[in-house]
């Protein structure tokens, strides 16, 4: 949790200089964990993970009348992930097997009462079976974690029920009202009622829409490596169930039948804010929760529908946001505790984000081309300086351009053939994306990348 803890000690975030365009690539760039922790030997490390996943769903639907419908599903998901140890003889050694099974039954009933009510109710019953085996040995590497062997077995589940109604009491006004109940028991346990309220009012024949929403969320921690996370947490405290209050308000405006503008503000407060931490540079990520979290921001977007005579369409989106998390920490792996009430900048706290795109289509020939642009102001990270001191910095901002070309052939109602060619990261600028923890190497973007595809529909 290097970035998190440094943030609580230093309120000033320095700006690190950007690397030169094309100066390194993901294949050749040195990883920060090797550079900043000299005693960590990364040569010849060849950890990799084998993943297998199986999903099966059996669904049944019954229509009682034109206004009522019952839908029921049985589902199963099995995930097996094996961490294969490195073959070198000196660096950190780790191996493990995770076997997660999810079984469940879900049923939803829908009832439409005239034009005013669209009622829906349902239940969801889930059984979770977790099996985790893991071994760890730092060998010749300086590490805060002693060697250990872990074997975990746990079975639990979640039961949920909900009732909601889309209510239209009068023209131009819609209210979505809902209440959900959840009961959870796996490693940790809890229950909660979660209300939902979404209001929308339209003006000017629907061209202007004002909206407001409040949602309360009950979110158990992810099951991936959950047993190991509980074992390694401070005082063996497991990750907690996240409980969030989310408020959102905004306006939507349609102009000239082709342009739609949206402005939305949001504020979210979390109890037990979720994050991931890595165990000692072995690429094993564990669910972790901070005692509290807060995020707020403002989003603006513009959507341009195709102007038929010109064949042009496009979009633009800009977000300004902040995100913070407050200790203490439960679950996961951390090298020091974040004290109660200590606040840190969240790892995903990118203040400014913007995306835009423009597409031109020539319908007679089926040819089209598109340009997409992406800007980010940089995320916070803790890097170690040459003297060994840690410093909280904000990684450099980035601007990326992508080009896409395509040709739609034999375009009919039931059959079509299309080919596409892509040039991503057009300027070949490799930049730092994020550094999630003390042990996680700085993640770099991909260099210029060429790809193509062919699509056949029949």
Structure description:
The chain is mainly beta and 458 residues long. It has a single domain (2-457), classed as TonB-dependent receptor, beta-barrel domain (Maltoporin, Chain A, Beta Barrel). The chain is 4% helix and 63% strand. The protein contains three helices and 23 strands. It has helices spanning 2-9, 32-36, 226-232, and strands at 14-15, 48-65, 68-84, 93-113, 117-137, 148-170, 173-186, 188-203, 208-219, 242-255, 259-278, 285-307, 312-330, 343-345, 352-362, 367-376, 380-384, 390-394, 398-409, 416-424, 432-434, 443-444, 449-457. It starts with a helix and ends with a strand. The model is unreliable at 1-41 (pLDDT under 50).
Quick take:
With 458 residues, the protein is mainly β. The chain has helices at 2-9, 32-36, 226-232; strands spanning 14-15, 48-65, 68-84, 93-113, 117-137, 148-170, 173-186, 188-203, 208-219, 242-255, 259-278, 285-307, 312-330, 343-345, 352-362, 367-376, 380-384, 390-394, 398-409, 416-424, 432-434, 443-444, 449-457.
């Amino acid at each position: 949790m290097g970035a998190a803890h440094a943030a609580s000690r230093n309120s000033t975030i320095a700006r690190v200089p950007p690397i030169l365009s094309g100066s390194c690539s993901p294949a050749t760039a040195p990883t920060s964990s090797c550079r900043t922790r000299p005693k960590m030997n990364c040569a010849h490390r060849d950890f990799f993970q084998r993943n297998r996943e199986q999903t099966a769903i059996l669904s049944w639907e019954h229509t009682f009348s034109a206004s009522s419908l019952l839908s029921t599903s049985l589902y199963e998901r099995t995930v097996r992930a094996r961490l294969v140890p490195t073959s070198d003889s000196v660096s950190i050694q780790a191996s493990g097997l995770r076997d997660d099974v999810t079984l469940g039954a879900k049923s939803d009933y829908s009832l439409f009462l005239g034009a005013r009510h669209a009622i829906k109710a349902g239940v969801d019953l889930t059984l979770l079976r977790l099996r985790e085996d893991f071994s760890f040995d730092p060998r010749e590497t300086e590490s805060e974690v002693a060697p250990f062997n872990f074997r975990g077995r746990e079975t639990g589940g979640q039961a949920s029920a909900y009732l909601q109604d889309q209510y239209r009491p009068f023209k131009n006004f819609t209210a979505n009202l809902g209440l959900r109940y959840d009961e959870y028991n796996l490693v940790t346990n809890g229950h909660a009622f979660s209300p939902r309220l979404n209001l929308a009012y339209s003006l000017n024949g629907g061209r202007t829409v004002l909206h407001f929403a409040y949602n309360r969320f009950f979110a158990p921690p992810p099951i991936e490596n959950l047993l190991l996370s509980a074992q390694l947490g401070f005082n063996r405290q497991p990750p907690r169930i996240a409980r969030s209050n989310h408020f959102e308000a905004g306006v939507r405006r349609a102009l000239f039948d082709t342009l739609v503008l949206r402005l939305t503000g949001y504020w979210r407060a979390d109890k037990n804010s979720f994050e991931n931490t890595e165990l000692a540079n072995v690429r094993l990520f564990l669910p972790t929760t901070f005692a509290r979290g807060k995020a707020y921001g403002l989003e603006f977007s513009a959507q341009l529908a195709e102007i038929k005579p010109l064949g042009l369409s496009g979009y633009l989106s800009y977000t300004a946001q902040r995100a913070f998390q407050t200790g203490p920490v439960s679950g996961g792996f951390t090298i020091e505790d974040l004290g109660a009430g200590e606040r840190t900048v969240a790892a995903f706290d990118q203040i400014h984000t913007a995306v835009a795109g423009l597409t031109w289509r020539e319908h007679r020939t089926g040819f089209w081309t598109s340009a997409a642009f992406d800007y980010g102001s940089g995320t916070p990270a803790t890097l170690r300086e040459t003297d060994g001191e840690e410093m909280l910095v904000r990684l450099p901002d980035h601007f990326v351009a992508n080009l896409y070309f395509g040709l739609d052939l034999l375009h009919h109602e039931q059959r079509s053939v299309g080919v596409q060619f892509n040039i991503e990261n057009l300027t070949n600028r490799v930049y730092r994306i994020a550094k999630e923890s003390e042990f996680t190497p700085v993640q770099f973007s991909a260099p210029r990348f060429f790809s193509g595809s062919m699509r056949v529909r029949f």
